[in-house]
Design a protein that fits this description.
This is EamA domain-containing protein. It is a multi-pass membrane protein. It is found in: Membrane. Keywords: Membrane, Transmembrane, Transmembrane helix. Residues 1-124, 138-269 form the EamA domain. With 274 residues, the chain is mainly α. It has one domain (2-269). It is 74% helix and 0% strand. The protein is built from 14 helices and no strands. It has helices at 2-14, 20-35, 45-50, 52-73, 79-85, 88-100, 107-125, 136-160, 166-181, 184-187, 196-223, 226-231, 235-248, 256-269. α1 packs antiparallel against α11, α7 runs antiparallel to α14 and α9 crosses α11. The longest helix is centred in the C-terminal third of the chain and has 28 residues, at 196-223. The protein starts with a helix and ends in a 5-residue tail after the last helix. The mean pLDDT is 83.
Length: 274
């Protein structure tokens, strides 16, 4: 979660130097290359073919459509606000597990989801607009959509974990993401020069997040209930707020703190906190 919290700051810094789709393609390509030495340890082909629809749904949910929403969101809103929105994920996982996996979801779970949505709305409504966050309302809505994709991803990883290693699931999503974002090479504007800041941020996103953070999360999902693993996401807002303040000079103002309190109260109400 510490590595993931830094991803919002790194992505926000990177989009000042590179097109967001080139950044996502670069991080996916780096992650795929990092897993290349493990290619000979692929699971048996019949097993992969049998679970291919689930694997593709997992990878399309995240990283593919997840980064479509999040990359655009971070061009419109602050990294710290996007990080706070991630606190919605544990509650969304609990409610989705009740709807699609038959797990019991209590009234407290749905109330927690309602509080979180209200908090996200308040966070967005009082968000200041500036050159680095020109449309925080739309940006935060897109980050909410990304959390919907992350919910699907979490449930699919939990379903696939008994059949595949965390390393294979992480490598599969990286390779699928590389293919998905490959058209960015032709349709995205290239910078006049590549700055070290943009390349360093891309390197962090590719190796420390797409490989290390996702690998740790997938390992946790193979050992813990989905709701408990997702609960650790509640640590991301704290990490992102601190790093956004230290590295980007971002601030949270006035009534936005009330919105953050509502989001965290919603996660607490469901009982899913790390």
């Amino acid at each position: 979660m510490l590595l993931w919290g830094g991803s919002f700051v790194a992505m926000k810094a990177a989009v000042q130097h590179l097109d967001p789709w080139l950044i996502v393609l670069g991080r996916m390509l780096l992650a795929t290359l990092a897993f290349a030495p493990l290619a000979r340890r692929m699971p048996p082909r019949p097993l992969v073919r049998a679970h291919l629809p689930g694997l593709l749904l997992m990878a399309l949910a995240e990283p593919c459509f997840y980064f479509v929403f999040e990359a655009k969101a971070l061009t419109l809103t602050q990294a710290s606000q996007a990080g706070v929105i991630t606190a919605m994920l544990p509650v969304m996982v609990v409610c989705a597990a009740g709807l699609f996996l038959g797990e019991r979801t209590s009234a407290r779970g749905w109330a927690g989801l309602a509080l979180g949505v209200a908090g996200a709305g308040m966070l967005s409504a009082f968000a200041p607009e500036d050159a680095y966050s020109p449309d925080p309302l739309l940006g935060n809505l897109l980050e909410m959509a990304a959390m919907g994709c992350a919910t699907v991803y979490t449930l699919m990883v939990k379903r696939l974990a008994p059949h595949f290693s965390p390393a294979f699931l992480t490598a599969f999503q990286a390779a699928t993401g590389t293919v998905f974002f490959l058209p960015a090479l032709w349709f995205s504007p290239w910078p006049a020069t590549f700055t070290w800041q943009g390349l360093a941020a891309m390197g962090y996103l590719g190796l420390f997040v797409s490989v290390a953070a996702y690998g740790c999360y997938n390992f946790a999902l193979s050992r813990l209930p989905a709701s408990r693993a997702a609960a650790a996401v509640n640590l991301i807002p704290a990490f992102t707020l601190v790093m956004g303040w230290l590295l980007l000079g971002e601030t949270i103002q006035g009534w936005q703190w009330a919105g953050i309190a509502l989001i965290l109260a919603g996660t607490r109400l469901t009982g899913h906190t790390p």
